[in-house]
Design a protein that fits this description.
- It is a single chain.
- The chain has one domain: Up-down Bundle (Four Helix Bundle (Hemerythrin (Met), subunit A)).
- The chain is 67% helix and 0% strand.
- The protein contains five helices and no strands.
- The N and C termini lie far apart (34 Å).
- It binds MU-OXO-diiron.
Length: 147
């Protein structure tokens, strides 16, 4: 059963970001399923590792969009990304050193992602609309994403 479900309120109007956010939702659900169903440590570690790698890819792509277009909130946003990367790397290291995987990990990540999209990523939508990168999420044609 999914721990986190996508809906359109999470849309930013930037196709690549929305596709990556959806994939992160799927990856967190995959991690949760692996833990909840008692899959072995190796499978959980592999799932968490994929999630960690994909999170870093998403952050790098999102940050590139910000720097390419001169988003004024870039530095603060990047600090928040960097904090999560450090936390995820610590989780990966704990698992690698023998700690038992717990559902608190997928709970933490799902809460973090929902909050981050709602409270932090949402903050850049007006800017990216103003520079023609984000679609109007209510109406309007698709706009090519410069990545
Ligand atoms: Fe979509 Fe700021 O992460």
């Amino acid at each position: 059963m999914p721990i986190i479900a996508w809906n359109d309120t999470y849309r930013t109007g930037i196709d690549i970001v929305d596709a990556q956010h959806r994939k992160l939702f799927d990856a967190i659900n995959g991690l949760h399923d692996a833990m909840a169903s008692g899959k072995g440590r190796a499978h959980v570690a592999e799932t968490l590792s994929f999630l960690a790698d994909y999170t870093m890819k998403h952050f790098a792509d999102e940050e590139r969009l910000m720097t390419t277009h001169g988003y004024p909130g870039y530095a603060e946003h990047k600090k928040i990304h960097d904090r999560l990367v450090a936390q995820v790397n610590a989780l990966v290291a704990q698992l690698a050193s023998g700690a038992a995987p717990t559902l608190e990990v997928s709970d933490f990540l799902s809460d973090w992602l929902k909050h981050h999209i709602d409270e932090v990523d949402r903050g850049y939508i007006p800017f990216f609309k103003s520079v023609g990168v984000a679609k109007d999420t209510k109406a309007g044609p698709a706009v090519a994403v410069a990545t």
